[in-house]
Amino acid sequence: METLAESHRAFMKTFYFLFISLVFFSCDNSPEKIPRQPIKFTRTTITHINPPKYKAFKTFKNDTLNYLVHNFERRKSYYIDRTLNALYKDLELPIIRGIISEGKKYNGGRHSPPSNGSVSHISLYLEKDIAVFTKFRSKIRPNILVVKLKQFPADSAWLLSKKYYKAPSSWPQEVANYYANRRIEDILLISK
Q1: pLDDT tens string 136-159
Q2: How many domains does the chain have?
Q3: Which domain of life is it from (predicted)?
């Protein structure tokens, strides 16, 4: 029979062997440097082969948000690559105000990127500002339709927006006509 000291010695030899082999095989003198790959983002859009049919505003019983979701958000594939005039023809609500946004150059995420001198999208307000602000405060989705346009130089667009800056309606017919032939890239609704 083995004595307690011999069994302890055999256990320690096995333990040391495993410990040394673990240290030996886990250490590597020349770690392989793996170059970092830039992260690539892909943009996906949902397109409908047959978008839902347009429904008149009166079928929504004055529910503006459901009207916008059904006719513009769900049917956006119908409007993409068409002119803004096609959207104007279907929109049964008056545009209270339009805000024009500049295109931006990506600068690596530092601060606000500078403008690239183009118009990138228009936010069409379909209700008064006070209603929009109240909804934002209450975390309710406002009735703002954001139309992303294929970018174009903004020279005359800025002159036109300055002309109507303090007008009662900041989306008069002259402004609507100016943007009517611009191509739509995407349509979004402001979320909560």
Answers
A1: 788 888 888 989 888 777 667 666
A2: 1
A3: Bacteria
